[in-house]
Amino acid sequence: MDLRDNITSEYFSAANKLKAKNARRKIVAYVESYDDVLFWRTLLGNYEDESRYFEIMLPSHNNTLERGKRSAMMKLLYKNVGEDMIACVDADYDYLLQGATHISKGIIENPYIFHTYAYSIENLQCYAPSLHNVCVMVTLNDHAIFDFVYFMREYSKAIFPLLVWSILFYRKGTYGKFSITDFNNISGLSGFNFKDPEPSLASLRNKVFKKVNWLRRQNPDAKEDYKKVEDDIQRLGVTPETTYLYIQGHHLFDKIIVPIMNKVCSKLIRDRENEIRSQSMHATQMRNELSCYSHSTQDIPQMLKKNSGYIISPQFRKMQEDVERYLQINN
Length: 331
Known about the structure:
Elements: H1 9-17, E1 25-30, H2 34-44, E2 52-57, H3 69-76, E3 85-89, H4 94-97, H5 102-109, E4 113-115, H6 121-125, H7 131-139, H8 148-172, H9 180-187, H10 198-218, H11 223-235, H12 249-279, H13 283-296, H14 300-306, H15 314-330
Parallel strand pairs: 1-2, 1-3, 3-4
Helix pairs in contact: 8-10, 8-11, 12-13
């Protein structure tokens, strides 16, 4: 049996009490998947000191702590987490649902459950102000040939009405009227060209315009509810310019950001290779330099997963405030 089965915060509290008085207190932080470990270490590691440290772990595959937020949280929610055992999860829509479901209520109210304030860690790894640095990590070329901040701002403004409709239906439990899958299908990019992204944005705006008009016709009495949801999610920190942080993370990562970065980084790599060719004194030097450079470039998804540029984001600051509040109460 896995030692992580059927354990609670009290188990770890008792273990801490058995230690010597000057021993550091261990706080176990359960996360959803392997990809989450580095992200939550980046947050929690800053709060380790001579009195405490965090051990970030994956739930057991068995019994109480099944992997995955839905199964794990249903069992952990009000029963197992506490001062010495916390849960760290993607917010998904639960933050924006503001207690409309059992899971949402627990995630936003339980002081021992920490969430991302964005849909997922993937959204924060795709934090627009950090994406140029990721390109540099991938290509070792610092030439800024694409304005990620501008593009993601315009992309977000285009899809913001879809997010409002989506949250409206999910809060009412009628998400079948406009599912996340429907959202993803409309919010995808077509014909993207990093040298001239405007046609792609125009096509997106046109798709959103048609869908929003259709939703209005299908839900003629929803005008007041739409306005309430729009105001409420903006109160929670969602702005038309940052909508991309609140859409499904895998869709953003795999279907929007990685394809854009593939095109941008390919151009940066070609430029660097051409520079090497033009500056090489002879063929042998050129081959050696090109080989060295080729071995130095990195994989885009892997560099995004290691990207920590989100630490300057308002969402990450909210996460820090939650941890600081928890530590202040439980010291």
